[in-house]
């Protein structure tokens, strides 16, 4: 996708609220207008917060943790909005239900892929701990084992995770279905679809950044274009331009990883490698000691960052799963009503997949 032109500065910081009063489509009441404006204002603020002042923060594990927390908050917001809309499942258009369920199942697959990659990186930490343990000794054999552990760590970290590679296919599916279903006669439905569009855009963007970070490939990035009629469009465009541009600059040439903390560990490992290449005790003892200490410190920072990000991905998985289960539960209840056709038909179709 081509990169869009920078949008014009809107008169209102978060967009013109009176735009919702357009005669096209169903009329939005003051209450519905307020719900949608509050959702979009919060989303805009959240996207602005994700755009760091210091580019060095981009693709650090702490920034990725913040991005995942942002996604959790946005998905919690859409669940809260659905409750506030008081839109019974029996009134949902089948297309809306399909959109929600398709998004959720794809996101669960993506979460599983990210979790598998974080688990793989944590396994690399075990090799790193083994390396550090052997480096504490001063006899020859442990140094030989340390060299072996170092080589194993390098091979492990540079290997590819096929599940992360497959994320591109899932993200492409989400992009293909990003356009909103047509809403003709439901004001609540219009609010729901408009809010879900914002959720999809932020979700696809963050997940594509994660896929690029884990794979080390800028080809995983997606340059989504958003019309400036959305109150959060300017914040998103600024975030996308900043993050994607910096990542593409970072991933020029061959690199083992784009993750800042992992790259720091890899730098320390490469510094140590020639010192123990022959399996003998290093001649420059002080420099060697400092290098080992530096590797231990960076390894600990990596380990802590991976643990926190893993918890963030797990939380996102649970939020998506809870929302999906709640909808399916409501569909089951609706399907028992003989006067209601939509819930029963959709549930039957979903469960037959």
The coarse silhouette is elongated
Q: How many structural domains can be distinguished in the coordinates? A: 1
Largest pleated sheet: none
* Mean pLDDT rating: 81
Question: How much strand content do the residues show?
Answer: under 5%
InterPro entries: ROH1-like (IPR008511)
Keywords: Membrane, Transmembrane, Transmembrane helix
Family: Belongs to the ROH1 family.
Membrane topology: Single-pass membrane protein
Description:
The chain is mostly helical and 353 residues long. The chain has one domain (25-316). The protein has helices at residues 30-50, 61-85, 94-135, 140-158, 162-165, 167-176, 187-215, 233-250, 260-272, 285-335, 342-351. The protein is elongated, with a radius of gyration of 24 Å. Belongs to the ROH1 family. Keywords: Membrane, Transmembrane, Transmembrane helix. It is a single-pass membrane protein.
């Amino acid at each position: 996708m081509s990169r869009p032109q920078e949008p014009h500065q809107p008169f209102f910081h978060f967009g013109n609220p009176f735009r919702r009063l357009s005669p096209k489509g169903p009329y939005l009441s003051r209450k519905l207008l307020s719900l949608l404006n509050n959702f979009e204002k919060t989303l805009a603020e959240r996207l602005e917060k994700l755009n760091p002042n210091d580019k060095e923060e981009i693709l650090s594990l702490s920034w990725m943790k913040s991005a995942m927390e942002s996604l959790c908050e946005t998905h919690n917001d859409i669940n809260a909005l659905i409750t506030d809309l008081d839109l019974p499942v029996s009134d949902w258009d089948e297309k809306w239900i399909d959109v929600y369920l398709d998004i959720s199942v794809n996101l669960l697959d993506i979460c599983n892929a990210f979790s598998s990659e974080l688990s793989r990186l944590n396994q690399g930490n075990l090799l790193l701990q083994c390396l550090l343990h052997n480096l504490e000794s001063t006899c020859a054999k442990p140094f030989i084992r340390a060299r072996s552990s170092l080589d194993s760590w390098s091979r492990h970290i540079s290997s590819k995770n096929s599940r992360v590679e497959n994320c591109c296919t899932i993200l492409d599916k989400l992009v293909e279905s990003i356009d909103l279903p047509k809403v003709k006669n439901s004001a609540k439905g219009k609010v729901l679809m408009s809010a879900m569009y914002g959720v999809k855009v932020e979700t696809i963007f963050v997940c594509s950044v994660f896929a690029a970070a884990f794979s080390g490939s800028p080809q995983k990035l997606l340059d989504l274009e958003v019309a400036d009629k959305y109150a959060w469009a300017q914040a998103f465009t600024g975030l996308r331009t900043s993050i994607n541009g910096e990542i593409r600059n970072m991933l020029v040439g061959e690199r083992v990883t784009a993750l800042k903390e992992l790259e720091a560990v890899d730098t320390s490992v490469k510094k140590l490698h020639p010192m123990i290449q022959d399996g003998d005790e290093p001649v420059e003892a002080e420099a060697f000691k400092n290098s080992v200490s530096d590797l231990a410190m960076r390894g600990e920072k990596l380990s802590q960052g991976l643990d926190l990000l893993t918890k963030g991905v797990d939380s996102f998985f649970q939020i998506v799963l809870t929302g999906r289960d709640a909808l399916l539960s409501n569909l089951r209840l609706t399907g028992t009503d003989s006067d209601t056709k939509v819930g029963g038909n959709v549930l039957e179709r979903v469960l037959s997949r």
